[in-house]
Every structure is written in structure tokens, then in C-alpha cells.
Amino acid sequence: MHDEPPPRRCALLLAAATTPALALAGNSLVDAGRPVAVAHDTLTVTPDREWNKLGWRPGLRCDRWTLDGEALNAVTFCGAIESGRPMFREVSKHDQPLPHFSTTMLLTDVPDLVEKSYRIALGVSLMTIDSAEPAQLDGERAIRFRYTFTRQDEEVERHGEAVATIRCKKLYWISYEAPAIYYYARDLESWRRLAATARFR
Amino acid sequence: MSRLIVRLALALAAFCLPLEAVAARAVDLTLPPFVSAYQPRTAAERGIWMQADEDERQLRDSRLLIDDAALNAYVRHVLCRTVGEERCHAVRLYVLRVPAVNATTGPSGAISVWSGLLLRLRDEAELGAVLGHEFAHFEQRHTLALEHRRLGATDLTAWAALVAGGAAPLVRLIMTASTFSFSRAQESEADSLGLRFVAAAGYDPRRVAEVWARQMDEADARAAGHKQRSRRYDGVHLLSTHPTDLQRMTALRAAAATLSSGGAIEAAAYAAALRPWRAAFLADQIKLNDFGGTDYLLGQLAQDGWSEDLLFARGELYRQRGNPRDLVAAADFYRQALALDQRHAESHRGLGMALLRGGEAEAGRAELRRYLELAPAAGDAAMVRALVS
């Protein structure tokens, strides 16, 4: 038989264990129903349900949201990426530099840029761009593309859908990714509703 | 005082380097006796085996696994020809779609070969050398020996921390250097035994060192592309698990020079086996953002002439870098590919995109219309239609 610690001690232990993690993560709740600035304040979206904003950002001009955890569903907003800049943080600038966005790119070059960035930044070994079609992002001519990828270190097949546009010589990119099994289909409509509310600031 | 200790430690660690590994020695072609189905004997070995079994289960179910029966049969055929029928059935082979130059061996006999390596090899003799090297790791039970060495070093370091006081960091450094030195010696031993397998199988042993020569040239091209210096002549690092490419090439060239020249190469058979996969492996390579290394690789693959898949890949490489001069060069490569095969839809697409991006809108749209005629159900057909309309 084990002695149970008093409730107050439990609470203190819990607080001690979780406080450093919370301070490091800096995750926050995103309320439904009001516009929220994302992608380094270059876009706003108006969610119709609660989302979680992750403290860790994949790039200086990017934000990442999730419903159930980054590994299960993740939405990424990147905005106003200038010519000569990568989409994400460099992981090994010396040995494996990320590709850079260029103002001379066509919209059809963006999926290639994303694929090259993923292969380096995420260690993706398998990736296919499954489809690409014209779309609109707040009235701007855009490209919507769907893709499938598998990271070498986890071997989970993920699907993704992204909308990208080039506006005033800067790249804007929002995407949704989730495991191909169950989660992608389940949350696809939530992401599409969210993406439809995207507005330039 | 601390500086003196560091100098002393580095001197001792340098003493641990396997200098004999790069010395040229005459090669004895007699293969060692083979004992199959080794069973782990100690608790540590049983633990290693259990982990190896789990790793192999993951490898078998990996999404990266290329399950093409013909390609797998060919790689196994080369392994069996290299090491002999009796030996080759003791291991399992896994071909993985990973665009990096690597092959691995588990302690219980799971050998993986990565697609980036297959793309770079030129013939069966070179593949035999790689497989012979990996098999040598298995046959010599290198993983077990290295693990025993690590455990011994850890024990000694722990005891030193207890009884040696201030000298403990020095002991730890020496033990660490010694373990990595041991790993490099194992690699050299596997190179040596791999060369013996290749020679005994009747393949040309002089091909083996060329794999490393090209690796260094590609690394130089990659470094130049990234505006970095060549590391070809860098010495071996204290914590390197492998000798440098230059050391390996030098040792293999010297050892092969003691053998009779000639032997089978089987370049045509190798090219035929890789043909169904080469375009896919090239596409993976193009996406690595390694312009210098990839351009060098394409040039090497085109030594016997530029085929349509190599020209298309080069067009993609230049178009995706996208400088104005690159777009002109890319358009030229796509046109050369189309001269060899007018119905290569992807080359029409690439040419159209390069022309559009280079400002030749009407000519670009014409190429994209041709792409849509040839590939109306392509995944990006809707987007391309929007570009041409």
C-alpha cells in the first residue's frame, strides 16, 4: 500500500512539472468568431471554431495552428516572403541550404519550391505533388495544390493541401497537413472554411 | 596546465588513428571460412539482436521500401555473384527510396541499399563492391565487436571517474577516440574484404576505388555550388566513424593494383536493371537543392551520351534554379530531349514553363498546349490550362 500525497503537494508538483514546458512552448488558444492576424501580421483569418496556435514557428514569417496536436493536423500560414529568402528556418545552412523564393517564379513553380523545402527542412524522402489547379486568395490569382509526403524519420504518410499566391513580389502560402489515415479527411473542411476567410492586411 | 592536458589527450588520441588502414598491402584472395546463423551469446548480444529484429521489422514494413521484384532480384543476384551462393542466403536485402548515398548492415543480416547510391553506381562491379563491403560488416560481426568495445570504454570511463579524479576527462577522451578509431578500422577491414569478394567473383577490382573518386568529385562540385571550400584533403576527424573518402580511395587503388587487371564490369546489365527507376531517382535528386553536385552527377551519368531522361533532368535542374541564363540553358536541354523523343510530355511542360518565365509568352504557351495534348489527365492540367488560356 502506498501513501497518497496531499492534494496541495500534487498541485505544486504538477505546476513545477508543467511550467517550464509551457514557458518553452508558448502555445495559445485561438478563439472562434473574430479575425486573427497570422503569418507575421500579413494576413488575417476568422476561424469558425477554436484552434491552438503553436509557440514554435517553422519560419520567421510563419505561424502554425493545430486542432489536436501538430502531428495529427497542422495549418501553416506564411506571408510576405521576399525574393532571396527561404520559406522556412534553415536546418543546416552550410551543408543543405534551403531553396529561396524568387520574384520571377510562376505560380506553378511554388509546388516545386515547397517540395524542395520539405525534402530538406523535414527530411522528406517521398513526396509527390498530386494535383494543381487555379484558385483565389482574397481575390488574388493563386494556385491550390495537393501533395503527399513521408518523412524518413517517422514514416507516416501525410496528405497536404495548400493555397499560394505571389502578391507585390512576395510569396503568401497557407497549408493544411494531416496523416492520410483518418485525420486528413476529417479536418479538411475545417481547413477549407478557415482558408476561405484569409484576407491580406 | 589544462592546455597541456588537452595537447596530451590529442596526441594520445591521434595515436589511436588506424594509420595502417591506408597502407597498401598485397591482397590475399582467400576468403575467410563462413559461419552462418550466428546466435547471440551474452545478455548484451541478445539485447542487440532484439533491437536488430525490431529495426528489421520496421525496414520490412517501411513506406520507403521499393518492392519492385525485378530490381530486388537483380540486386540479390549481384550480391550472390559477389559473395557466393552459400553466403548470400544468410542475409536479407532491402532497397529503399532515399536519395542519399548510403547502404547499411544490421548485425543479424539486414542489408539496406539506398536509391541515391544505386543512381550513382555505373556497373555491376561497383554494386558488387558496395554489397561486398556491407556483407563483410555482417560476416565479421562488426556491430557486435563495436558494441563490446563501447561497453568496455564506458566501464573504464566510469571507473576512471570514481578513482582517477581529475584525470577522468582525459581517460574519457582517449576512450572515445579509441572507439571511433576502432569503427574506422572496421570500415577499412570491410573495404578490404569487399575488394577480395569482388576480385574472387571475377569482377574488375579496379572499379571499386572509382566509386570514392567520383564521390569526392561530386562533393567538390556541391561545395563549389554552395560557394564553400573543398574538404577533399581534410584529415580524418577524431569522431569520424569512417575513414575519409580520399583514404578509402587511396587504399583501395593500392590494393587493387596488386591484383591482376581485368574482369567483368557488366555495365549494360546494370543500366538495364536501373532503367525503369532512373527517371524517378533523378527526380528525387533534382529536388535536393544541390545544383553543383547534381550537375556533376548528370555529367557523369551522361559519359556515354546524353539520353532523353538525363537531358530532361538537366532542364529541370536549370529551370528550377531559375536565373535568366539558367532558363535559356534549360530551354536548350528540353529541346535536345524533345529531339530524341517528341512525345515526352514533361519536356514540353518544362520548355513551356522555362519560356514563359523567360518572357517568351507565346512560344511558352504553345509548348504547354502540346503538353496538355499529350497528357490531358496530368495532375496539374487544370493549372496549366489556366496559364495558356
Structural class of chain A: alpha+beta
Give the overall form of chain A.
Answer: globular
Kindly report the spatial arrangement of strands forming the biggest sheet of chain B: 1-3-2
Largest interface: A-B, 33 and 28 residues
Index terms:
heterodimer; A: 201 residues; alpha+beta; Protein Transport Mog1p, Chain A; eight-stranded antiparallel β-sheet; three-stranded antiparallel β-sheet; 11 strands; 37% strand; globular; disordered N terminus; B: 389 residues; mainly alpha; Serine Threonine Protein Phosphatase 5, Tetratricopeptide repeat; three-stranded mixed β-sheet; 66% helix
Describe the structure.
- By secondary structure, chain A is an alpha+beta fold.
- Helices cover 22% and strands 37% of the residues of chain A.
- In chain A, strands 1-4-5-6-10-9-8-7 form an eight-stranded antiparallel sheet.
- By secondary structure, chain B is mainly alpha-helical.
- Chain B has helices at residues 2-15, 43-60, 69-83, 85-88, 115-120, 124-139, 142-163, 168-200, 207-225, 245-257, 267-286, 291-301, 308-321, 324-340, 345-357, 361-374, 381-388, and strands at residues 92-96, 103-105, 110-114.
- In chain B, strand 2 (103-105) and strand 3 (110-114) form a beta hairpin.
- At the A-B interface, helix 2, strand 7 and strand 8 of A face helix 15 and helix 17 of B.
How are the elements arranged and paired?
The complex is a heterodimer of chains A (201) and B (389).
Chain A: H1 7-25, E1 28-30, E2 36-38, E3 43-45, E4 51-53, E5 62-66, E6 74-81, H2 110-121, E7 124-137, E8 140-151, E9 157-167, E10 170-179, H3 183-196, E11 199-200
Antiparallel strand pairs in A: 1-4, 2-3, 3-11, 4-5, 5-6, 6-10, 7-8, 8-9, 9-10
Chain B: H1 2-15, H2 43-60, H3 69-83, H4 85-88, E1 92-96, E2 103-105, E3 110-114, H5 115-120, H6 124-139, H7 142-163, H8 168-200, H9 207-225, H10 245-257, H11 267-286, H12 291-301, H13 308-321, H14 324-340, H15 345-357, H16 361-374, H17 381-388
Parallel strand pairs in B: 1-3
Antiparallel strand pairs in B: 2-3
